[in-house]
Amino acid sequence: MIGAGPIYTYVDCVMGKNMVWLGADSDALGNGKDDDWHMRFNINVGYYF
Predict the structure, then answer these.
(1) What is the mean pLDDT of residues 29-44?
(2) How many domains, the chain?
(3) Is a pLDDT exceeding 70 seen at residue 37?
(4) Predicted TM-score of the model (pTM)
(5) In whole angstroms, what is the distance from residue 29 CA to residue 18 CA?
(6) Domain containing 37: what range?
(7) CA atoms within a 13 Å half-sphere pointing along the CA-CB vector of 9
(8) Cβ–Cβ under 8 Å, residues 39 and 14
(9) 3-state DSSP helix/strand/coil percent for the chain, to nearest 5?
(10) In this structure, are residues 46 and 11 in contact, taking their beta carbons and an 8 Å threshold?
């Protein structure tokens, strides 16, 4: 987390296999044909007043 006054920025990097929200070919239980690693880089900027 990076903060500057009322502005906050959250940065994270997620890596995994057979994740529903990360891989393109997985079901609700994480089962899928795609056995490769996938990565997602997130940046969230918020203004809190």
Answers:
(1) 78
(2) 1
(3) yes
(4) 0.54
(5) 9
(6) 2-47
(7) 5
(8) yes
(9) 0, 50, 50
(10) no
> Residue 33: pLDDT above 80?
no
Cβ proximity of 25 and 34 under 8 Å: yes
For residue 39, the one-letter residue type is M
What own/partner pairs with CB < 8 Å and gap ≥ 24 does 39-43 have? 39/13, 39/14, 39/15, 40/13, 40/14, 40/15, 41/11, 41/12, 41/13, 42/10, 42/11, 42/12, 42/13, 42/14, 43/9, 43/10, 43/11
Q: How many CA atoms lie within 13 A of 47 on its CB side?
A: 0
3-state secondary structure of 32: strand
User: 5 Cβ partners below 8 Å, 6+ apart?
Assistant: none
